[in-house]
Amino acid sequence: MNQTNQLHAERIKYITAVVLYGTVGMFLRFSGMPGEFVAMCRGILGTAFILLYMRMRKMPFGMEAVRKNAGLLILSGVLLGLNWIFLFAAYIITTVAIASLCNYMAPLIVVLVAPLVLKEKLNAKKLFCVFLAFAGILLVSGVLEGESGNLPGIVTGLLAALAFVGIVLCNRKLKDVGVYERVVVQLAVSALTILPYVIYKNAGTALPWNTRAVLIVLMLGIVHTGFAYCLYFSGMATLPVQTVAVLGYLEPVVSVLCSAIFLHEAMSPLGWAGAALIIAAAVISEVTG
After folding, report:
1. Phi, psi for residue 124 in degrees, rounded to 5
2. Coil, helix or strand for 249?
């Protein structure tokens, strides 16, 4: 496969993962389970799924590469756990649109710091597309119409964004670590990071177990985590950081569409215009090279 075809394949993988992520907020609401508990289950089930997949495919686990990158892998796993804790909390205490807006400050921040931290050249067109997409997120969120949500939700979403910035930077600095080894370690560490918080938040509290909740948690762990993270980290490791930033904005579009259709969260004409801006930014970025 030549480089052009490989990049095209990685774009498809990344977009698939992003679309799956876009439905997480909706399914979290449907589950009725505490956000931190669902986040921990995602880490556990995702780890188990990927390890089973590697075993079935008889894929060796590159322990030597993991040991050489242990510090960055552990740090990125901790940051992943923190991102999930804050993002899932934001989904519950504010609207999906506001949570997505705050979390997706991260790609904009990454593009801006990439020249300093990653020594990558800043592409003017990509930068324009990121700002265009960010303008779209502002419209989708309803902030410009005075519907900013509550302050705790906004702060929580921004904390999720800061954790995500760290994840992106760590992944760009990893050397010679296979995608599956990378995801296994990060997911396992994320689950261990979230566990103390789950115990603290839910000690002595009965969780609302029912068939629907169990099925949703299993789906979020296996499909939206184990499967999706393989695609996601593969694309993140290969695609330019600006491309990752712009395509990442498809996630909040899917989130808002799902919440409007299935959760009945109202979206104004300005919100729909914002969704169009985000999609246009992604298309312009990819089609014009």
Report:
1. -60, -40
2. coil
